Every structure is written in C-alpha cells, then in structure tokens.
Amino acid sequence: MTDQPKAPFPVIEHRTGVAERRWFRTDRVLLLGALGLLIWIIDDVLLLVFASALFAVGLDGLATGIAKRTPLARSWALALVLVLLTSFLGFFGYLILPRFFEQLDDLWQTFLGFLERMQGYLYEAGWTETFFNNNGQGREQLADISQKIAEHLATATTSGMSAIASLIIFLAITIFAAADPGLYRRGLLRLLPVHRRRRMDETFSVVAHALHWWFLGQIVSMLLLGATVSLGLWLIGIELWLSLGVLTALLTFIPFLGPIIAAIPIVIVGFTAGMQTGVIVLVFYLIIQNVEGNFIVPMIQHRAVNLAPALLISVQVLMGVLFGVLGLILAAPLTVVAMVMTKMLYVEDVVEGENKVPF
Q1: Residue 89 and residue 268: Cα distance in Å, rounded?
Q2: 65-73, long-range: CB < 8 A, 24+ apart
Q3: Rounded to whole angstroms, how far apart are CA atoms 129 and 131?
Q4: How far is CA 276 from CA 111, 264, 272, 321, in A?
Q5: pLDDT in tens, 213-223
C-alpha cells in the first residue's frame, strides 16, 4: 500500500488554537477594563462596603476574644461589645460633644485670626509685595478665601441627609457581617473552584488576623494620643484642649499623615498663645508622637503587617486623589489586605511555589 499524504489539519488546529488564545487574552483585557470602569463608577459604594467589613472584622475580633476568655457565647459577647460601644458613644455625645463643637468654633476663629496676623507680619516684612499690593487687596483675598471655605462647609452641611443614609447603611452592613461572618465567607468561597477554596480560606484567615491587630492598634493609638494631647494641652493652659484632643484622636486613625495633619491646629493654637507656649506645645507633641509611633503601636501591631512608610504614604496620596477623603482613610487597611494577599497568593504560591500560612 502506498502512503497517503497527511492532510494539513494540525496546522489549521495550531492556527485555530493561537487565535483562540489571543481572543481569550483580549477578552480578559476587556473584562479587566470593564471591571476597572465599574469600580471607578461605584467607588463610593465599594469603599463604604469595605469600611463596613473592616469594622465588622474589628467587632468580630473583640467578640471572639471575649468569648474565649469568658463563659459567654460569641453572640452574647458581640451583644456586650455593641452595648458597651453604644454606651460609650452616648456618654461621649452627651457630655463632650456640646463643648467640643463650642471649642471647634473658637478654634476656627483662632485659625482665622492666625491667618490675619501672619499676613500682617509678612506684609510688614515686605514678603507679600509679589502677591498683594498696598491698597488692601491682601485682606480682601484673605476674606475671599475664608468665604470660600465657609461655602464649602455649607455645602457639606446640605449633604447631611446623604451622610445619614450612608451611616445607616454602614451600621447595618457592619452589624450583620459581624453577627455571622462565616455566612459571607462561605459564600465567597463557593464562587471559587473547589481546588482553590482551601488556600483562599487560609488567606481569608490571615487577612482577618492582620486586620484584627491593625484595627486594635489604631483604636488604642487613637485613644492614647487623644487623651494624652488633651491632658497635656490642659496642663499647659491651652483653652481649646478638648477640641484639639478629639481632632487628634480622630485623625490618628489615618497612619503617618493623620498625626501630621493633627499637629497643624495644635501648633497654630500654641503659637497664638505666645512664642514660648508654642515651642512647649510643639516639643510636647513631637515627644508623644514619637513615643506612640515608635513604641506603643509597634507593640500592638507586630502581629499584623509591617507597613513600609514610603509605600503607605504613596498609597494614601493615590487613594486620596482618586477617591477623596474616604479613600485616604481606608488606604492603610486596603494596603494591609493587598500585602497579605500578594504575599500568599503570588509570592508563596506562584514565585516560591509554597503553600504555607505566613505570620
């Protein structure tokens, strides 16, 4: 028998396979682009959901810790945490908030007076000739700036209903997620192939562990720094000690950048009271900030993730530019999640090829 020439079907199959792979890659690029566009459109919703998940993880950590150390079941431990938290917020709102807002108004007036004095000093020194002329335009421009700031505050006030709605959604998601985190965890795992669920479950556990300790570290840091600043400013003789302490506590939730922003009104008020008082306030704040940043927080967060300052600040700036204030606030926990998942799912599984749980 004579050999029959082979038909060139393998070549066609090979070309078909290449075309299919190219089409598959194109599909993936288009899918990623559409996903990025969707995230950009609903970024506020996604950040709100992530914030709810973050606080749910914090509540879950507190409730689980109480349940392990007491006879209480986890559900009762969570109820105890919610009652204590609500009581603290109610006490804070009833006794401290009225005086806080009163001092906040005084702080705003002090800030405007500081701007007036600084503009006067610069004008007398001849440093403002490039920007202001001698017919009083400097004060007019300063007044325009103050008016614009006031308009922005008024605009923010008119959006109060939206903020209240977002707060209600935030509380609902947080409480439901903290009540039964396993329900949502199992739901996410069911979206993955069976052979990947175990590794992803390990990753979820490590992410939750890291966020627990990061969240605890930030809360302790907020309370300690806020209380220390309030007490120190009160001892120094600063009348606005309460408002400055509360602002410091709130801004400390944002690592690195938050305490720096909090230092601005503290230093301004200090130097408004006098040069010597300003120097004392500045030295005092630098001391407690260094103690808090170099000793207290590392002791608490050593079980979480070691965030490189340059990386975190870069992410904070990027998130702030792209997503505003909420993006800036959530930049640090998002970085924690990204670092843990990158380390486990890419570095260990892809680069090193090992399946071990870090930390």
Answers
A1: 29
A2: none
A3: 5
A4: 19, 17, 10, 38
A5: 888 888 888 88
